[in-house]
Design goal:
mainly alpha; 2 domains; 8 helices
Length: 189
């Protein structure tokens, strides 16, 4: 009975979040209209943070699969749980690699952090400060700074290597005396 109640709560959370998302973005946003229609007169050029979006930037990633998890709890199925987990992971990957870059390019004013994440981070930071000794916190900060500087040095080295390699390739391809250039010119009409 307990699993049934928890599952029903997750299903209701899912229905509420989907309804709230739909009422906020409408048909155009729900069916990814701004992915397909380029006319600025057709869609809004500002983002609305109403409904569930007041609390979360991407509620579909957080609560969008709650119904699957709820159904998995109600029927106590590991198969459905794994389906829900894979579905949520795929949703997050879609968000990171497709939707977020698109939204950034299109609207450019997307908020970086939603209120719920900000509040959870502040609560976690307060808890860490109370639980973890100050000396350990200082050691972690020093290690973080040291690793960040080493990481930046490596990134700069890789950038320089890439620039050198691109310069070599450009030199070889643009030099009319080079064999690769001659072979390329022969293939062109």
């Amino acid at each position: 009975m307990f699993f049934l109640f928890q599952g029903l709560c997750l299903l209701l959370l899912n229905v509420w979040s989907l309804w709230s998302m739909y009422t906020t973005v409408g048909d155009f946003g729900w069916f990814f209209g701004d992915f397909f229609i380029d006319t600025a007169e057709v869609y809004r050029t500002d983002l609305r943070y109403t409904g569930i979006y007041r609390f979360l930037n991407n509620p579909d990633c957080v609560t969008g699969c709650a119904g699957f998890y709820g159904a998995a709890l109600m029927i106590q199925s590991w198969d459905l749980f794994w389906l829900a987990l894979v579905s949520q992971i795929m949703n997050i990957l879609f968000l990171v690699f497709v939707e977020a870059p698109h939204m950034q390019r299109l609207y450019d004013m997307r908020r970086k952090e939603d209120p719920v994440s900000r509040e959870l981070k502040s609560i976690a930071n307060l808890a860490i400060k109370k639980i973890v000794p100050n000396t350990l916190q200082d050691d972690v900060r020093k290690l973080k700074t040291k690793l960040k500087s080493k990481y930046q040095v490596k990134v700069d080295e890789v950038k320089e290597d890439i620039k050198r390699q691109l310069h070599k390739v450009h030199t070889k391809v643009s030099n009319p005396d080079h064999a690769a250039y001659s072979a390329l010119r022969k293939k062109l009409p």
